[in-house]
Amino acid sequence: MKHTKGEWKVEYDSNKIGEPGHIMAIDGEKKEYICTTSGNVKANSTLIAAAPDMLEALQNLIGLQFANVDSETKVRLEKAIQAIKKATL
User: Fold this and answer.
1) What is the pLDDT of residues 38-67, one digit of tens each?
2) What is the CA angle 50-54-58, rounded to 5?
3) Among 8, 45, 53, 84, which is least packed by CB within 10 angstroms?
4) pTM across the whole model
5) Is residue 2 part of a domain?
């Protein structure tokens, strides 16, 4: 695992709509800043905070044995593999 260890959570500067969302990695008592989001703050922040969980889910899925899958499923699996490679450069 190359990304910052811990559960990633969103913290906001205030309750005002449009305020930046800060992504923090929380590992026990340790809290580490990851990044600040802008734009569509809620959507961007929740997507970024979920990234480690999504990566782990994809890696677990790809780790399964897929015997006798059709060509459409093979294309989908290859896209998942490419997404993992992009996320773990």
Assistant:
1) 888 888 889 999 999 999 999 888 877 777
2) 175
3) 53
4) 0.76
5) no
**Separation of alpha carbons 81 and 76, rounded Å:** 9
How far apart CA 88 and CA 67 sit, in angstroms, is 26
With contact defined as beta carbons under 8 Å apart, do 21 and 37 qualify? yes
Mean of pLDDT over the chain: 85
Overall domain count for the chain: 1
Residue with tokens 């340790």: 30
Interhelix angle 71-87/41-63, nearest 10 degrees: 120
Question: Is the residue at 49 inside a domain?
Answer: yes
| Tokens 């093979």, located at residue | 74
Of 15, 16, 13, 71, the residue nearest 24 (C-alpha): 13
